[in-house]
Structure formats: structure tokens, C-alpha cells
Amino acid sequence: MPDIDVYTWEDVDQLCARLAGIVRDSGEVFDSVVCVLRGGAVPGVVLANALAIDIVLGIKVVQAGQVTGAGQGNGAYEAEPATVVVPLNAVDLQDKRVLVVDDVLDSGASISVVVEEVFRAGAAAVRVATLQVKTYSPMKPDFYVEERSNWLFYPWMSGEELRQMESRLAVARQP
């Protein structure tokens, strides 16, 4: 049964520094960062600063009807298809090398939609970077710091989100 890993701002800072090092060590160079909003906003901006990338954009994707992994095999969950609710709009990424950044990669549905949108905006190459990836994820980002199976609570999330996670876990743990 999964638990909840709670991260502080200091934890996130350390994860971002490690992720920047991993991207830097790859030798790949990027023209812009696209942050998957909300979770990718902080790591995306920190990464852009660390890698001296001046163009930072945001895109918001949601999965309606997402059912969390409580009580399901290996913590995985099922969800409706992801849809863009805040698009990149008329951004021209023609021939750009784009780094898409999110906090965690779980099912991969949201990140897949974002990558499609970035290519649709003209990007020549797209890579994905996340702080963490779930151990049961069907896909892996190009760059990540660590794998986790627990639910993750980051400091930019609300207290209400933490209470909802705790409540779902309590229900899942009932016999």
C-alpha cells in the first residue's frame, strides 16, 4: 500500500539541482522550457535558470475523471484522456530544442499530450525532464532524478490536496 512522501522547499531545491546536473551532463542543449502547469512550474523555472534557458512557457493539461491508485495494483491508476486547458497559443517553437518539465511522471498521459502540442508548435526536438517518475509508469522521461512508488506532496500543493490524499489512502486501507 502506498504512503505519502512530503517534500519541503529545500528538498525540491536539491532535486532541481540534481536534475539540472543530469541534463547538463547529457550534453544536450535546449532553446526553451515548457512547464507543465502547475507541478512543473517551479522545477521548470529553476531548471531554466540553472541551464541558462531564456524562453520559459507554460501549458496546462488535465485528466478528467482521474481515479487515484489507492487499492489498485502497484499504485497505478486509470484516467480519462488528458486534454489541454491552457494552450501554448500562437507560440512559434519552429526548429527549437524544447525541454518539457513536470514534477512527476505517473501514467504519462499528460506529458504525451504536451509533447504532441510542442511538436505541433514546430519544435525540432522535445525531451522530457521530471524530478521523479513512478516505478509503475509505462513510460520514462528522458531525464529524471529518482523513481518513487508513494504518492508525492510538494510544497506548492495545498493543504486540501494533502487532506484528500490522506483520505483516499485511509479508504483504500480499510478491509
TrEMBL record:
Gene3D superfamilies per the UniProt record, alphabetical: 3.40.50.2020
One Pfam family linked to the record: Pribosyltran
Annotated Phosphoribosyltransferase domain residues: 9-145
Signal peptide start-end: none
Tree of life domain: Bacteria
Claim: ATP-binding is one of the keywords in the record: no
Keywords: Glycosyltransferase, Transferase
CDD domains per record: PRTases_typeI
GO molecular function, one term: glycosyltransferase activity
Record has Glycosyltransferase as a keyword: yes
Listed name of the protein: Phosphoribosyltransferase
Lineage, broadest ranks: Bacteria, Bacillati, Actinomycetota, Actinomycetes, Pseudonocardiales
